[in-house]
Amino acid sequence: MTAMTPEAPDVLAATDGRPTATREARQRRNGALASPRQRNSKVAASLILVVIGVAFVIPLGWIVLAAFDSAATVSVKLPTSVTLNNFTEIMNWETTFRPLWNSLIISMGTAIITVLCSVLAAYPLSRYQMRWRKPFMYTVLFGTCLPITAMMVPVYALFVAFGLLDNLGGTVLFLAATALPMAIWMTKNFMDSIPVALEEAAWVDGASAMTALWRIVVPLMRPGIAVVFIFVFTQAWGNFFVPFVLLFSETSQPAAVAIFGFFGTYGTISYGRLAAFSILYSVPVLALYLLVQRLSGSSFAMAGAVKG
Amino acid sequence: MATLALPGRDHRDPGRSPGSRRVVQSLLRTSPLIPAVVLLLLFLAGPIVYSLYGSLTNASLTGPKAAQPDFVGFDNYAQLIDNPQFWKSLVLTLVFVIASALIGQNLLGMALALLMKAAHGPMRAVVSTIVVVSWVLPEIVAAFALYAFFASDGTLNIMLGWFGVEGSAWLIVLPMLAVILANVWRGTAFSMMVYSAALNDVPPEITEAAQIDGASGWQRFSRITVPMIRRSISTNLMLTTLQTLGVFTLIWVMTGGGPGVESSTLPVLAYQEAFKFSQVGYGTAIATVTLVLGGLFAIVYIKALKPEVD
Q1: Do B52 and A137 form a contact (C-beta atoms < 8 A)?
Q2: Rounded Cα gap, residues A235 and B138, in angstroms
Q3: Which residues cross the membrane (chain A) (predicted)?
Q4: Nearest residue on chain A to B6, judged by CA atoms?
Q5: How far is A278 from A281, CA to CA, in rounded Å?
Q6: CB within 8 Å: A180 and B39
Q7: Cα–Cα distance between A42 and A38 in angstroms, integer?
Q8: Terminus-to-terminus CA distance in chain B, angstroms?
Q9: What ipTM was assigned to the predicted interfaces of this complex?
Q10: Can you give the residue range of the structural domain that contains B220?
């Protein structure tokens, strides 16, 4: 059973390496001189890490290598002849640019609506003591936990009833609603860390709550807002199931759904072009992830914000 | 909808407002919540309520029953309980969640976090980047990459060939194992990051004291480190469970739920019933069951997180 699973042996190996690994780390922190045995355990940990890394990199490697291969198949191999044809062939409006443009409209729209709504909602939740604030926050937390994919059948039925099927606006509003609980939660936590004293000064000078929010709080929490924006944008950009169910005319399909077209309907699958398209489609979110890392100064940015 | 002003925060209105003014003021104060609440009610609470109602009808995708479904009471649920396919799907969902999230992602994530601490610096950077990229990629791209990996003439079988092992059509022979490993590949980065952060918060003095007292590496890990990061572990277990419960794209691309229904977890089954066999009411009943399942997990999770809300 284990022979065919690249991960399985690694799990076992990693478990075996665990005790020595921790001990070694402690010693290093302690400033103790590394004995030969500790050096060995450091080497062992690195070796195990390399094995796991190789297991993780192989599927990624396929995308990159196949994109530049003139005769790509499903297996990882060095390109028989390196070519940019896969890219040049898909560089047209119908295949690549329209789906990416649709993705951009959907993700931008979702992120803008979500961030606006959650900044507005977070302000009273963060600044005023309200009787129902706790139940509201619990409901929001509950909303972050719902398996949205499980909901798509009733959502489809509801969109039929609203006449919103195949409507970009409707899809954007739904994506915004599903992103809102997490966005409100994150925005409120960011806002809580902005001291209230500055706003009090503005209030004394006669500013309204809304003026204080837009002139003082929002500029101060710009990095936090950027993190929420990118988080929502990335989720909408990568979402396949929601547009797959709610949008069916080719002209409004985003890249996540258009990519599915390479797969089934054209009979023989052009893996090279599929991989090239995957790269063009993935680069924006990878770049945004790097941006988030810089904004919050740690590789843990997204997950950390999620944890609250 | 009345609000209580926090003394000391409310400088504009030093407590001389009569009742009616208070109400107006509190309404004004809560008005910024309106856009968010409207969106949430329409597009999140709406489908949930509709899910409960729709599962009691015989709505279909096309034909007369699409426009005017009849109310059929609990027929869909009765049908579900009688249907062995549903029970199979429920079991597959549990297997998928337990094997890929609770065991795979958590153990491998913890192992990676521990190894990262011990390994050489450059190695740490390279491997963590690779693992995180597989998590940041759009889900459908990850699904294609893994489909290619497990396909009959895919990378896995070629690599097995190097060792003289004959491969197999993994996606057909062992579809569940393939999607479980795929989900481990896809989601481990999250657990790794949660555990890396948690391990960094454990003060080294405590484990050092234990070491001086002669505790072995495993003892220090299981008796000191694990209890100290208990909260991170339980949070992470819940989050990965909820994420995995909703996985659709990965399974849909890799196996389509098949062969037959051999890898149809509940979200995939709901989709198949509603859109392949156009039984929207029945599919909605499956969706409702999945929502209730997710809701139960969510309540456990919120109970665990309670101090952070209060």
Answers
A1: no
A2: 8
A3: 43-68, 100-123, 135-162, 168-186, 225-249, 269-292
A4: A129
A5: 5
A6: yes
A7: 6
A8: 20
A9: 0.83
A10: 84-309
